[in-house]
Design a protein that fits this description.
The protein is globular and about 65 Å long. Among the domains are: 202 residues, Rossmann fold, CATH 3.40.50; 86 residues, no CATH class. By secondary structure, it is of the alpha+beta class. The chain contains ten helices and 20 strands. Helix 1 runs parallel beside helix 2, helix 1 packs across helix 4 and helix 2 runs parallel beside helix 6. A hairpin with a 4-residue loop joins strand 19 and strand 20. Bound molecules: flavin-adenine dinucleotide. Flavin-adenine dinucleotide (FAD) binds next to strand 7, helix 1, helix 2, helix 3 and strand 17. Its EC number is 1.4.3.3. Its cofactor is FAD. Keywords: FAD, Flavoprotein, Oxidoreductase.
Length: 493
Amino acid sequence: MPGEMRPVPAELAPRSVINPTRRSPNPRPAAGVRMPGGRAEVRASSRSFRARTTARGTGAAIADQTKGRVSLMSSDHPFPGGPVQVVPSQGQVLRKPALGAAPEGQANGDCRWSAGRRAAMPSEDADLPTPDFAFDADAPGACVAGIRPYRCGSYRLEAEVASGRFVVHNYGHGGAGITLSWGCAAKVQDLVRARVAASHETEAAVLGSGVMGLTAAARLLDLGLTVTIYANLMFAKTTSYKAGGQWALSLVEHHGKDGELKDVLTTSYNTFKAGGQDFGVHERPNYTSKVSSNFEKILHIAPGLIPPRQDLPRMPFHGHHNRGFLYQTLLVEPPTFLARLVDDLNRRGVRFVQHKFANRADVFSTVTQKVIVNCTGYGAKKLWNDAAMHPIRGDLAMLRPQPDLQYLYSQNGYMFPRTDHVVIGGNFDCTDNEQPNKAECKKLVRAVAMNFGLAPRMAIPENFIQHPRISEWLRQRSLAPADTPCEPPCNPV
Ligand SMILES: Cc1cc2nc3c(=O)[nH]c(=O)nc-3n(C[C@H](O)[C@H](O)[C@H](O)COP(=O)(O)OP(=O)(O)OC[C@H]3O[C@@H](n4cnc5c(N)ncnc54)[C@H](O)[C@@H]3O)c2cc1C
């Protein structure tokens, strides 16, 4: 028999479920040198340098205190001459940029600088804070694992009529489920709205209490429906709760769906931004050692949604000598976000029913509602006999929280400093076992610490997402026709 789940206690002050039309009450600007309204300012002890620009865009200023230089890196694309750098005259001491110094705004070129232009390389004095990589893999909760619900061809977002029920499928979002959640929920809402306008149903069932189920339930409530969520696992046990939480298009296929995806991305991004910190959402720069297809795809599909990429002559971190790239994105902290969603859903009268469905027939015999939204993530492989679904499992190392780290980082793995933990991940395999692998967690930490000169050097493992063979596989998948059979490259060659 299905069992009632107890309401989750409210962890946060009551506030309504995110409304995409509302703006964040306290948008927190990125710290450091910024270009609000197309103006960049870098303060020196004796006077200010003011870089006026009509540019739509952003720049990161990297100061070299010893040599009295600052380079202000503008967006790579809009400036015909490439990144612009400015060097103040001798003797002027520049303030070190604040944490996560990351420019905002939009640049379109035509920069004028009071201090003139000259190429300059930033020094390590301008480095952003170095993480503490202390990690005890044996500590409770230090190493977790989850399964990315990867669907070859595309995530599934469509309706069908089966056994007299209107079923909307919303699963298969790979490593981008948090990212796409609000946008997919809006599409689910559209499909159900059209259905109930004709059928006059007043109830809906949602299968799954991960991010897809919870956001879809919120949007169904907005239609005035009575909503029941059926799930095997409560939200805090789902893959969604374990996710790193970066807003990026990672490890998800979307063949032939660029039009739909543009809407999905736009709605998601705007809704998360409007939710703000109460929903565990922070604006963050991500420093990457390589051009990131996860962001380039967003820039291509939804131009203008996030600021353009910036090219940096050097990653601004201790021990780094390589060039890098900077993308502005969001960090969504799943534990905060999901708890907040569940709290809101409880207050709005959603009923949670704990039940593990054995198969599709079990769904139709257990669920009484005529409208069913299937958000079962990787569970859909078995439940809906979906052979396109593949498990792409990943481990995450959870280090102690370090509030001075206000940036995301990607090189030989990724690091997302959150309020609860500094999360380090980026490996994968193709098992559907959610047991954490402590040796893998240690390897993840070592790989990132190595970049900072704080761990012995090692070659990037073949089961890391940033290994070139994986990038190449993903590239080929993006070029292949939608129906090309796919097998994730899980066995290291
Ligand atoms: C290591 C890792 C890092 C990640 N990092 C990010 C990131 O930075 N950004 C990002 O956007 N995404 C990230 N993801 C991806 C993200 O976690 C997933 O895409 C997302 O959680 C999928 O959400 P979901 O609701 O579809 O599935 P889930 O969260 O898995 O929820 C599925 C729900 O369906 C229920 N269910 C399944 N089968 C049944 C059944 N037979 N009967 C009853 N209930 C059932 C489950 O109990 C659960 O409640 C990451 C994933 C992993 C593993």
